[in-house]
Amino acid sequence: MMVKPLLGIHHVSALTANAKENFHFYTKILGLRLVKKTVNQDDTSVYHLFYADERGNPGTDLTFFEIPHAGKTYPGTNSITATSLRVRDNKALQYWKNRFNQFHVDHDEISLESGRSTLSFRDAEGQRLILVSDEGNEGVSGGKPWDRSPVSPENGVIGLGPVHLTVSRPERTIKVLTDVMGFREKTGYTKEKDNKLVRVFETGEGGTGAEVHVIEEDKVGRERPGRGSVHHVAFRVEDEEELTKWVELLNTKHLPNSGFVERYYFKSLYFREPNGILFELATDGPGFEGDEDFEHLGEKLALPPYFEQQRQEIEARLIPLNTKE
Question: VOC domain spans which residues (predicted)?
Fold first, then answer.
């Protein structure tokens, strides 16, 4: 089965225990736009919040499922251990360091990793995030920050950068990345903080928006996820026709998978790589403007048509969340 190369990272989905505080941090401090306030389609009793660039272009979405009673995360292996967010240049990182100091955001110092300037930080729940400079970057283009963001456009986040996978048996993950998903290996690097070797893989046009960084860790147990952990990473597929080919390919490779899944804002396919990390393949469209116009994205609870008849019941189970502020 011939498939086209994956186009890059589509979105990353993580867990929060508090949608209100989560909304405040990612919109008021990080300056992302909430482009969709909806529900987890597998459990409609909880919110699913999508933060992104001005209109939720593919490759810019950082999403959160709200699990109100989620326990703390116990970091470990066989998990997604960092999500990167792209900024335009090195100068922007100094702006962010100052901003994090102003808002008392836990952060490290600016450092050089894989030839790029980076700034690691954590939200209040311990979500592990990295700002990465796109200065000199070639590859998948970034998005466009929302012009009504509290962060100036020249410093705003323009999309998702490399996703870090920490695994106990890297050869198993790498085999799926390269032999099944078509990633190619680039030059790796050594992390400044703990001296660990990182192997870098890219797809499509490459660059910061199309990389997976694989780190070996066999001295700690499997991560116990909770608030502040990542649920899955999704990779970009051009359209529904191409996604159908990926379903056939995974079946041919005998990789257990969800088959085609309708998510309304995009179409999806889910599977776990051999170390247990959940991967999703998602189409670039149709996008977030099918049920809300551009000017009012994220202001009301949006439900796909197949849940609309349950709106009253769904809204009754959710804690009200004002996203018009």
Answer: 8-134, 159-284
The whole-angstrom separation of Cα 100 and Cα 104 is: 6
> Structure tokens of 314?
């769904």
* Domain CATH code at residue 292: 3.10.180.10
Strands 79-87 and 211-216: unpaired
Whether 4 is covered by a domain: the verdict is no
The model's pLDDT over 8-28, given as tens digits with 9 standing for 90+, comes to 999 999 999 999 999 999 999
**Residues above pLDDT 90, as percent of the chain:** 96
| Burial classification of residue 195, based on how many CB atoms lie within 10 Å of its CB (0-12 exposed, 13-18 middle, 19 or more buried) | exposed
Q: Global pTM?
A: 0.97
Residue 324 lies in a domain: no
Per residue, the 3-state secondary structure of 39-87, as one string, reads EECCEEEEEEEEEECCCCCCCCEEEEEECCCCCECECCECEEEEEEEEE
For residue 93, which of 124, 122, 132, 121 has the smallest C-alpha distance? 132
Tell me the C-alpha distance between 134 and 57, whole Å.
Answer: 17
Task: Please indicate, yes or no, if residue 262 is contained in any of the structural domains.
Answer: yes
Contact 50/291 with Cβ under 8 angstroms? no
Q: Which domain holds residue 279?
A: 9-317
Q: Structural domain tally of the chain?
A: 1
**Per-residue pLDDT tens for 172-225?**
999 999 999 999 999 999 988 788 999 999 999 999 999 999 999 988 999 999
Residue 283 resides in a domain: yes
